């Protein structure tokens, strides 16, 4: 019966045996994975927009080519993730509808505007840096298709993080105006980047069950601390100041102590009232509607080919 099946499932998870699409799984496991994976996919495709804002204004041909490749990678990540989520019995159209009708979330970080070129550096350095910290852990997720998708995604995120840090290095070592822009970008992106890891563990609705099922391998607070510990020395190397006056090395615990996130801001952005929420969803809606004829044409062509092959 159900209880026996659930126990056997947990034994499998505990033994680190990957769960594959055709294996039995509890409904709640399937539902939770669809939720997390689809939101992850939506984050990738909405995440293309803040950087897309600077493609036509990149400072050189080389920077433009690099940025274009990065944004295309993000589109690709969205596609792998939608495909991986489809193995759980939901279609990409259904997931996309949930994004557009607001019932599925995407990462809060993509509701902030990109105001100057240094923001592109800060996104690569901090946003991709935070994304990798989270995604390295997800390479060991219990669900096979998700874990395997993460491996390639992490390799690409690593390039994204390096390109962002490279932009920050050039600007931090540049003119006084460039340094000012780099510091301004760090000031605006630091706290939103920390919010990417989600609420504190004690407030996190899904963490304890997701950890038990090994969907998540580390908690929100553990990953956030790991990111801070790795990133503070990188800011020091750039000669930039992290906008947190409580930030201090805690030698006894071998980690940084730091201030508190503005959780009102986090909730506000997650609930749809950030600076760019409406604009982001509107842009995605227009792109989806604008692509309707392409989807119809591709289907009509596939049908025609099938008919030709059958006759
Ligand atoms: N924004 O119980 P928890 C990228 C929601 S990286 C919005 O802790 P969970 C790469 C959460 O969904 C970004 N909502 O939830 C890139 C839940 O709501 P629900 C994407 C947030 O799932 C870089 C509720 O709060 N990465 O795209 C946020 O256990 C540069 C309660 O929270 C991933 O999605 C937030 N920051 O932990 C692209 C990684 N935090 O669903 C372009 C995979 C929490 O009940 C440019 N996801 N919420 O309505 C995860 O690891 C997890 O889902 C967490 C949240 C850690 C995000």
Automatic annotation (TrEMBL):
> Where is the signal peptide, in residue numbers?
none
One matching Pfam family, short form? Answer: PaaA_PaaC
Q: Which InterPro entries match?
A: Aromatic_CoA_ox/epox, Ferritin-like, Ferritin-like_SF, PaaA, PaaA_PaaC
State the superkingdom: Bacteria
Q: Which PANTHER family match?
A: 1,2-PHENYLACETYL-COA EPOXIDASE, SUBUNIT A, PHENYLACETIC ACID DEGRADATION PROTEIN PAA
List the protein's name.
Answer: Phenylacetic acid degradation protein
Question: What species is this protein from?
Answer: Sneathiella chinensis
Q: What is the lineage of its organism?
A: Bacteria, Pseudomonadati, Pseudomonadota, Alphaproteobacteria, Sneathiellales
